[in-house]
Amino acid sequence: MRGSSLICLIAFVVGFSPSANAQTDNTLFPLPAQSDTVAWPTQGWPVGEPLSVVQSVRLNAVLDPVFTTEIGDGLGETRAIVIIRGGEIIYERYRPGFNAETRHISWSVAKSITSALVGRAVQSGLIASIDDPMPGPFAADDPRSDISWRHWLQMLDGLDYVELEATGLSDSDVIQMNYGPGRFDSMAYARANFPPAHIPGEHWNYSTLGFHVIGRALQSLLPGTCLDPDEDPRLCNADPTVMSDWIDTVLFRPLGMNGVEEYDAAGTLQGGSQFYLSARDYAKFGLLHLRDGLWDGEMLLPVGWVDFVRRNPGTSDNNGYGGGFWPALENPDNPETVFTPPYDAFYAGGREGQLIWIVPSRDLIFVRVGIMPDSSENWNALFKLAQDAGAAVMP
Protein backbone atom coordinates (compact mmCIF):
# COMPACT_ATOMS: atom_id res chain seq x y z
CA MET A 1 0.00 0.00 0.00
CA ARG A 2 1.28 3.48 -0.82
CA GLY A 3 2.18 5.84 1.95
CA SER A 4 0.01 8.97 2.09
CA SER A 5 3.07 11.24 1.69
CA LEU A 6 3.94 9.57 -1.63
CA ILE A 7 0.36 9.90 -2.83
CA CYS A 8 0.28 13.60 -1.99
CA LEU A 9 3.66 14.24 -3.65
CA ILE A 10 2.79 12.54 -6.93
CA ALA A 11 -0.80 13.77 -6.83
CA PHE A 12 0.44 17.35 -6.55
CA VAL A 13 2.36 16.88 -9.80
CA VAL A 14 -0.71 15.64 -11.68
CA GLY A 15 -3.15 18.11 -10.09
CA PHE A 16 -5.02 15.65 -7.91
CA SER A 17 -4.99 15.24 -4.16
CA PRO A 18 -7.17 13.35 -1.70
CA SER A 19 -9.59 15.38 0.38
CA ALA A 20 -8.10 16.82 3.54
CA ASN A 21 -10.88 15.29 5.63
CA ALA A 22 -10.84 11.90 3.88
CA GLN A 23 -10.12 8.67 5.69
CA THR A 24 -6.49 7.63 5.67
CA ASP A 25 -5.51 5.15 2.97
CA ASN A 26 -4.79 2.37 5.47
CA THR A 27 -8.55 2.02 5.97
CA LEU A 28 -8.84 0.72 2.40
CA PHE A 29 -7.86 -2.78 1.32
CA PRO A 30 -4.80 -2.66 -0.98
CA LEU A 31 -5.47 -3.01 -4.69
CA PRO A 32 -3.68 -6.11 -6.06
CA ALA A 33 -1.19 -5.93 -8.90
CA GLN A 34 -1.51 -7.81 -12.17
CA SER A 35 0.60 -10.97 -12.19
CA ASP A 36 3.61 -10.86 -14.51
CA THR A 37 2.43 -14.19 -15.95
CA VAL A 38 -1.04 -12.91 -16.91
CA ALA A 39 -1.48 -10.90 -20.10
CA TRP A 40 -3.50 -7.70 -20.03
CA PRO A 41 -6.83 -8.22 -21.80
CA THR A 42 -6.50 -5.35 -24.28
CA GLN A 43 -6.89 -7.67 -27.27
CA GLY A 44 -8.84 -10.43 -25.55
CA TRP A 45 -9.32 -11.91 -22.12
CA PRO A 46 -6.85 -14.56 -20.94
CA VAL A 47 -8.66 -17.63 -19.64
CA GLY A 48 -7.80 -18.96 -16.20
CA GLU A 49 -7.33 -22.54 -15.12
CA PRO A 50 -10.58 -24.55 -15.10
CA LEU A 51 -12.48 -24.49 -11.84
CA SER A 52 -12.25 -27.58 -9.71
CA VAL A 53 -15.23 -29.88 -9.49
CA VAL A 54 -16.02 -28.54 -6.03
CA GLN A 55 -15.78 -24.92 -7.19
CA SER A 56 -17.95 -25.62 -10.23
CA VAL A 57 -20.63 -27.29 -8.14
CA ARG A 58 -20.65 -24.40 -5.67
CA LEU A 59 -20.75 -21.75 -8.38
CA ASN A 60 -23.46 -23.43 -10.43
CA ALA A 61 -25.59 -23.73 -7.32
CA VAL A 62 -25.30 -19.96 -6.89
CA LEU A 63 -25.72 -18.86 -10.52
CA ASP A 64 -27.89 -21.46 -12.28
CA PRO A 65 -31.13 -20.12 -10.75
CA VAL A 66 -30.62 -16.54 -11.99
CA PHE A 67 -30.57 -17.67 -15.62
CA THR A 68 -34.02 -19.21 -15.29
CA THR A 69 -35.97 -16.25 -13.88
CA GLU A 70 -37.77 -13.78 -16.13
CA ILE A 71 -38.04 -9.99 -16.07
CA GLY A 72 -40.76 -9.74 -13.43
CA ASP A 73 -39.34 -12.38 -11.09
CA GLY A 74 -36.85 -11.66 -8.31
CA LEU A 75 -33.53 -10.80 -9.93
CA GLY A 76 -35.26 -10.62 -13.29
CA GLU A 77 -33.68 -11.44 -16.62
CA THR A 78 -29.95 -11.95 -16.24
CA ARG A 79 -28.42 -11.58 -19.69
CA ALA A 80 -24.74 -12.05 -18.90
CA ILE A 81 -22.42 -12.81 -16.00
CA VAL A 82 -18.65 -12.61 -16.30
CA ILE A 83 -16.25 -13.38 -13.43
CA ILE A 84 -12.61 -12.32 -13.51
CA ARG A 85 -10.12 -13.64 -10.94
CA GLY A 86 -6.44 -12.72 -11.00
CA GLY A 87 -6.96 -10.85 -14.27
CA GLU A 88 -8.32 -13.93 -16.10
CA ILE A 89 -11.81 -15.03 -17.07
CA ILE A 90 -12.89 -17.97 -14.97
CA TYR A 91 -16.64 -17.89 -15.71
CA GLU A 92 -18.71 -16.48 -18.56
CA ARG A 93 -22.33 -17.21 -19.32
CA TYR A 94 -25.01 -15.62 -21.50
CA ARG A 95 -28.76 -15.98 -21.78
CA PRO A 96 -29.84 -17.23 -25.23
CA GLY A 97 -29.88 -14.31 -27.66
CA PHE A 98 -26.88 -12.56 -26.08
CA ASN A 99 -23.14 -13.12 -26.46
CA ALA A 100 -19.71 -11.68 -25.73
CA GLU A 101 -20.16 -8.94 -28.35
CA THR A 102 -23.61 -7.77 -27.23
CA ARG A 103 -23.61 -4.21 -25.89
CA HIS A 104 -25.76 -3.51 -22.84
CA ILE A 105 -26.92 -0.13 -21.59
CA SER A 106 -25.00 1.10 -18.59
CA TRP A 107 -27.60 3.24 -16.90
CA SER A 108 -25.81 4.67 -13.84
CA VAL A 109 -22.65 2.63 -14.39
CA ALA A 110 -22.10 5.57 -16.76
CA LYS A 111 -21.33 7.71 -13.71
CA SER A 112 -18.33 5.54 -12.93
CA ILE A 113 -17.16 5.78 -16.54
CA THR A 114 -17.58 9.56 -16.54
CA SER A 115 -15.65 9.71 -13.28
CA ALA A 116 -12.80 7.78 -14.92
CA LEU A 117 -12.86 10.26 -17.81
CA VAL A 118 -12.32 13.06 -15.28
CA GLY A 119 -9.38 11.06 -13.94
CA ARG A 120 -7.99 10.77 -17.47
CA ALA A 121 -8.37 14.54 -17.92
CA VAL A 122 -6.47 15.12 -14.66
CA GLN A 123 -3.77 12.65 -15.69
CA SER A 124 -3.28 14.39 -19.04
CA GLY A 125 -3.24 17.91 -17.59
CA LEU A 126 -6.60 19.10 -18.94
CA ILE A 127 -7.75 19.60 -15.34
CA ALA A 128 -5.29 21.28 -12.97
CA SER A 129 -7.10 20.32 -9.77
CA ILE A 130 -10.45 18.73 -8.97
CA ASP A 131 -10.85 21.38 -6.26
CA ASP A 132 -11.03 24.08 -8.95
CA PRO A 133 -14.46 25.31 -10.06
CA MET A 134 -15.78 23.09 -12.81
CA PRO A 135 -16.57 24.81 -16.15
CA GLY A 136 -20.19 23.76 -16.32
CA PRO A 137 -23.08 25.13 -18.38
CA PHE A 138 -23.61 28.11 -16.07
CA ALA A 139 -22.77 31.76 -16.69
CA ALA A 140 -19.73 33.18 -14.92
CA ASP A 141 -21.86 35.18 -12.46
CA ASP A 142 -24.01 32.15 -11.60
CA PRO A 143 -23.05 30.74 -8.14
CA ARG A 144 -23.33 27.24 -9.57
CA SER A 145 -20.26 27.96 -11.71
CA ASP A 146 -18.17 27.92 -8.49
CA ILE A 147 -18.96 24.27 -7.65
CA SER A 148 -15.79 22.19 -7.82
CA TRP A 149 -15.12 19.03 -9.81
CA ARG A 150 -14.78 17.19 -6.49
CA HIS A 151 -18.21 18.22 -5.24
CA TRP A 152 -19.89 17.33 -8.53
CA LEU A 153 -18.17 13.90 -8.52
CA GLN A 154 -19.18 13.21 -4.91
CA MET A 155 -22.78 14.41 -5.46
CA LEU A 156 -22.22 17.22 -2.96
CA ASP A 157 -23.15 20.00 -5.39
CA GLY A 158 -26.00 21.22 -3.17
CA LEU A 159 -28.53 21.90 -5.94
CA ASP A 160 -32.28 21.70 -5.48
CA TYR A 161 -32.73 18.50 -7.49
CA VAL A 162 -34.97 15.49 -6.87
CA GLU A 163 -34.23 11.96 -8.04
CA LEU A 164 -34.23 9.23 -5.38
CA GLU A 165 -36.92 11.00 -3.35
CA ALA A 166 -39.31 11.40 -6.30
CA THR A 167 -42.78 9.95 -5.73
CA GLY A 168 -43.67 9.67 -9.42
CA LEU A 169 -42.76 10.68 -12.95
CA SER A 170 -43.99 14.27 -12.62
CA ASP A 171 -41.70 15.20 -9.71
CA SER A 172 -38.70 13.16 -10.87
CA ASP A 173 -36.14 15.63 -12.16
CA VAL A 174 -34.16 12.92 -13.93
CA ILE A 175 -37.25 11.81 -15.87
CA GLN A 176 -38.11 15.39 -16.82
CA MET A 177 -34.50 16.06 -17.85
CA ASN A 178 -33.92 12.87 -19.85
CA TYR A 179 -37.38 12.23 -21.29
CA GLY A 180 -39.47 15.36 -20.64
CA PRO A 181 -38.88 19.04 -21.45
CA GLY A 182 -35.12 18.71 -20.92
CA ARG A 183 -34.57 15.89 -23.38
CA PHE A 184 -33.48 18.09 -26.31
CA ASP A 185 -31.00 20.22 -24.33
CA SER A 186 -30.22 18.95 -20.86
CA MET A 187 -27.84 21.82 -20.12
CA ALA A 188 -30.35 24.54 -21.03
CA TYR A 189 -32.78 22.71 -18.76
CA ALA A 190 -30.17 22.63 -15.99
CA ARG A 191 -29.54 26.37 -16.31
CA ALA A 192 -33.25 27.15 -16.04
CA ASN A 193 -33.86 24.87 -13.05
CA PHE A 194 -32.13 23.42 -9.97
CA PRO A 195 -30.95 26.48 -8.00
CA PRO A 196 -28.53 26.12 -5.08
CA ALA A 197 -30.20 24.78 -1.95
CA HIS A 198 -27.15 23.91 0.20
CA ILE A 199 -23.54 24.97 0.49
CA PRO A 200 -21.49 22.69 -1.78
CA GLY A 201 -19.82 19.94 0.20
CA GLU A 202 -22.38 19.85 3.01
CA HIS A 203 -25.32 17.85 1.65
CA TRP A 204 -25.28 14.63 -0.38
CA ASN A 205 -27.98 14.13 -3.02
CA TYR A 206 -27.99 11.43 -5.69
CA SER A 207 -27.84 13.17 -9.06
CA THR A 208 -27.78 11.97 -12.65
CA LEU A 209 -27.93 15.65 -13.54
CA GLY A 210 -24.53 16.15 -11.91
CA PHE A 211 -22.83 13.62 -14.15
CA HIS A 212 -24.50 15.02 -17.27
CA VAL A 213 -23.04 18.39 -16.21
CA ILE A 214 -19.63 16.75 -15.68
CA GLY A 215 -19.85 15.27 -19.17
CA ARG A 216 -20.51 18.70 -20.65
CA ALA A 217 -17.68 20.20 -18.57
CA LEU A 218 -15.27 17.66 -20.04
CA GLN A 219 -16.48 18.57 -23.51
CA SER A 220 -15.76 22.25 -22.85
CA LEU A 221 -12.09 21.39 -22.25
CA LEU A 222 -11.67 20.02 -25.77
CA PRO A 223 -10.90 22.37 -28.68
CA GLY A 224 -13.46 22.47 -31.45
CA THR A 225 -16.36 21.28 -29.29
CA CYS A 226 -18.77 24.11 -30.14
CA LEU A 227 -20.53 23.79 -33.48
CA ASP A 228 -20.36 27.59 -33.66
CA PRO A 229 -16.74 28.48 -32.80
CA ASP A 230 -17.74 32.03 -31.81
CA GLU A 231 -20.29 30.89 -29.25
CA ASP A 232 -19.70 30.74 -25.50
CA PRO A 233 -18.71 27.11 -24.68
CA ARG A 234 -21.01 27.26 -21.67
CA LEU A 235 -24.02 27.83 -23.91
CA CYS A 236 -23.17 26.34 -27.30
CA ASN A 237 -24.53 23.32 -29.07
CA ALA A 238 -21.67 20.83 -29.00
CA ASP A 239 -20.20 18.64 -31.72
CA PRO A 240 -20.43 15.15 -30.17
CA THR A 241 -17.83 13.70 -32.54
CA VAL A 242 -15.09 15.67 -30.74
CA MET A 243 -16.00 14.12 -27.40
CA SER A 244 -16.54 10.69 -28.90
CA ASP A 245 -13.08 10.73 -30.47
CA TRP A 246 -11.54 11.82 -27.18
CA ILE A 247 -13.30 9.08 -25.17
CA ASP A 248 -12.12 6.52 -27.69
CA THR A 249 -8.57 7.85 -27.54
CA VAL A 250 -8.15 8.14 -23.78
CA LEU A 251 -10.24 5.21 -22.52
CA PHE A 252 -11.85 2.79 -24.95
CA ARG A 253 -8.90 2.21 -27.26
CA PRO A 254 -6.21 1.83 -24.54
CA LEU A 255 -8.34 -0.83 -22.82
CA GLY A 256 -9.48 -2.48 -26.04
CA MET A 257 -13.13 -1.63 -25.32
CA ASN A 258 -15.73 -1.40 -28.07
CA GLY A 259 -18.08 1.07 -26.43
CA VAL A 260 -20.41 3.82 -27.58
CA GLU A 261 -22.06 6.65 -25.70
CA GLU A 262 -25.15 8.78 -26.17
CA TYR A 263 -25.61 12.55 -26.54
CA ASP A 264 -28.70 14.72 -26.38
CA ALA A 265 -29.87 16.78 -29.36
CA ALA A 266 -27.69 19.72 -28.27
CA GLY A 267 -24.61 17.48 -28.33
CA THR A 268 -24.16 17.01 -24.58
CA LEU A 269 -22.74 13.71 -23.36
CA GLN A 270 -25.30 11.92 -21.20
CA GLY A 271 -22.58 11.12 -18.69
CA GLY A 272 -24.92 10.04 -15.93
CA SER A 273 -26.69 7.22 -17.72
CA GLN A 274 -25.97 6.42 -21.36
CA PHE A 275 -23.01 4.22 -22.28
CA TYR A 276 -23.28 0.89 -24.12
CA LEU A 277 -20.66 -1.82 -23.56
CA SER A 278 -20.36 -5.59 -23.61
CA ALA A 279 -20.11 -7.55 -20.37
CA ARG A 280 -16.45 -8.24 -21.17
CA ASP A 281 -15.82 -4.52 -21.65
CA TYR A 282 -17.46 -3.70 -18.32
CA ALA A 283 -15.05 -6.24 -16.81
CA LYS A 284 -12.09 -4.46 -18.46
CA PHE A 285 -13.26 -1.19 -16.93
CA GLY A 286 -13.46 -2.94 -13.55
CA LEU A 287 -9.94 -4.33 -13.99
CA LEU A 288 -8.57 -0.84 -14.64
CA HIS A 289 -9.81 0.13 -11.18
CA LEU A 290 -8.84 -3.11 -9.48
CA ARG A 291 -5.31 -2.45 -10.78
CA ASP A 292 -5.28 1.08 -9.34
CA GLY A 293 -5.44 2.82 -12.73
CA LEU A 294 -2.52 0.89 -14.24
CA TRP A 295 -2.96 -0.79 -17.62
CA ASP A 296 -0.21 -2.75 -19.32
CA GLY A 297 2.60 -0.62 -17.94
CA GLU A 298 0.88 2.76 -18.29
CA MET A 299 -0.83 4.73 -15.52
CA LEU A 300 -4.12 5.86 -17.04
CA LEU A 301 -5.48 7.36 -13.80
CA PRO A 302 -3.67 9.58 -11.30
CA VAL A 303 -2.02 7.94 -8.32
CA GLY A 304 -4.62 7.82 -5.55
CA TRP A 305 -7.57 8.30 -7.92
CA VAL A 306 -9.12 4.86 -7.37
CA ASP A 307 -8.89 5.32 -3.60
CA PHE A 308 -10.67 8.65 -4.03
CA VAL A 309 -13.54 7.23 -6.08
CA ARG A 310 -14.08 4.21 -3.77
CA ARG A 311 -13.99 6.11 -0.46
CA ASN A 312 -16.97 7.58 1.35
CA PRO A 313 -16.11 11.28 1.72
CA GLY A 314 -17.62 11.22 5.22
CA THR A 315 -20.40 13.80 5.04
CA SER A 316 -23.04 13.29 7.69
CA ASP A 317 -25.88 12.53 5.28
CA ASN A 318 -23.95 10.51 2.67
CA ASN A 319 -25.23 6.94 2.50
CA GLY A 320 -21.94 5.59 1.18
CA TYR A 321 -21.24 7.12 -2.23
CA GLY A 322 -17.61 7.79 -3.15
CA GLY A 323 -16.65 9.73 -6.29
CA GLY A 324 -18.28 7.68 -9.03
CA PHE A 325 -18.33 4.30 -7.24
CA TRP A 326 -20.05 2.93 -4.16
CA PRO A 327 -18.09 1.34 -1.31
CA ALA A 328 -19.77 -1.99 -0.54
CA LEU A 329 -20.23 -1.35 3.16
CA GLU A 330 -22.63 -2.86 5.64
CA ASN A 331 -24.51 0.39 6.06
CA PRO A 332 -27.87 0.50 7.87
CA ASP A 333 -28.46 4.03 6.53
CA ASN A 334 -28.43 2.74 2.96
CA PRO A 335 -31.52 0.68 2.00
CA GLU A 336 -29.38 -1.12 -0.59
CA THR A 337 -26.69 -2.45 1.69
CA VAL A 338 -24.29 -5.37 1.88
CA PHE A 339 -24.86 -8.09 4.45
CA THR A 340 -22.25 -10.61 3.28
CA PRO A 341 -18.51 -10.11 3.85
CA PRO A 342 -15.89 -9.26 2.75
CA TYR A 343 -16.64 -5.56 3.05
CA ASP A 344 -13.70 -4.26 1.02
CA ALA A 345 -15.60 -4.43 -2.29
CA PHE A 346 -16.59 -1.36 -4.29
CA TYR A 347 -18.90 -1.25 -7.25
CA ALA A 348 -20.43 0.57 -10.19
CA GLY A 349 -24.17 0.05 -10.28
CA GLY A 350 -26.92 1.00 -12.69
CA ARG A 351 -30.67 0.79 -12.97
CA GLU A 352 -32.20 -2.67 -13.41
CA GLY A 353 -29.20 -4.47 -11.94
CA GLN A 354 -26.22 -3.45 -14.08
CA LEU A 355 -23.27 -4.24 -11.83
CA ILE A 356 -19.46 -4.19 -11.83
CA TRP A 357 -18.52 -5.66 -8.44
CA ILE A 358 -14.82 -5.31 -7.55
CA VAL A 359 -13.32 -7.22 -4.59
CA PRO A 360 -9.64 -6.38 -3.93
CA SER A 361 -9.22 -9.01 -1.18
CA ARG A 362 -10.27 -11.73 -3.66
CA ASP A 363 -8.64 -10.12 -6.74
CA LEU A 364 -12.04 -10.61 -8.31
CA ILE A 365 -14.52 -8.82 -10.57
CA PHE A 366 -18.15 -9.90 -10.97
CA VAL A 367 -20.14 -8.38 -13.84
CA ARG A 368 -23.87 -8.82 -14.25
CA VAL A 369 -26.08 -7.15 -16.88
CA GLY A 370 -29.78 -7.60 -17.53
CA ILE A 371 -33.19 -6.31 -16.48
CA MET A 372 -34.14 -6.51 -12.80
CA PRO A 373 -37.05 -4.85 -11.02
CA ASP A 374 -35.50 -2.02 -9.03
CA SER A 375 -36.08 -2.51 -5.32
CA SER A 376 -33.90 -2.52 -2.23
CA GLU A 377 -34.62 -6.20 -1.74
CA ASN A 378 -33.47 -7.09 -5.24
CA TRP A 379 -30.32 -5.00 -4.97
CA ASN A 380 -29.49 -6.60 -1.62
CA ALA A 381 -30.00 -10.01 -3.24
CA LEU A 382 -27.78 -9.03 -6.19
CA PHE A 383 -24.99 -7.95 -3.84
CA LYS A 384 -25.28 -11.26 -2.01
CA LEU A 385 -25.17 -13.10 -5.35
CA ALA A 386 -21.90 -11.34 -6.21
CA GLN A 387 -20.37 -12.13 -2.82
CA ASP A 388 -21.57 -15.75 -2.90
CA ALA A 389 -20.20 -16.25 -6.42
CA GLY A 390 -16.86 -14.86 -5.28
CA ALA A 391 -16.77 -17.19 -2.30
CA ALA A 392 -17.68 -20.18 -4.50
CA VAL A 393 -14.64 -19.81 -6.75
CA MET A 394 -12.09 -19.29 -4.01
CA PRO A 395 -9.74 -22.22 -3.28
UniProtKB/TrEMBL annotation:
<dbReference type="InterPro" id="IPR001466">
    <property type="entry name" value="Beta-lactam-related"/>
</dbReference>
<feature type="domain" description="Beta-lactamase-related">
    <location>
        <begin position="80"/>
        <end position="367"/>
    </location>
</feature>
<dbReference type="InterPro" id="IPR050789">
    <property type="entry name" value="Diverse_Enzym_Activities"/>
</dbReference>
<protein>
    <submittedName>
        <fullName>Hydrolase</fullName>
    </submittedName>
</protein>
<keyword id="KW-0378">Hydrolase</keyword>
<dbReference type="InterPro" id="IPR012338">
    <property type="entry name" value="Beta-lactam/transpept-like"/>
</dbReference>
<dbReference type="Pfam" id="PF00144">
    <property type="entry name" value="Beta-lactamase"/>
</dbReference>
<feature type="signal peptide">
    <location>
        <begin position="1"/>
        <end position="22"/>
    </location>
</feature>
<dbReference type="GO" id="GO:0016787">
    <property type="term" value="F:hydrolase activity"/>
</dbReference>
<keyword id="KW-0732">Signal</keyword>
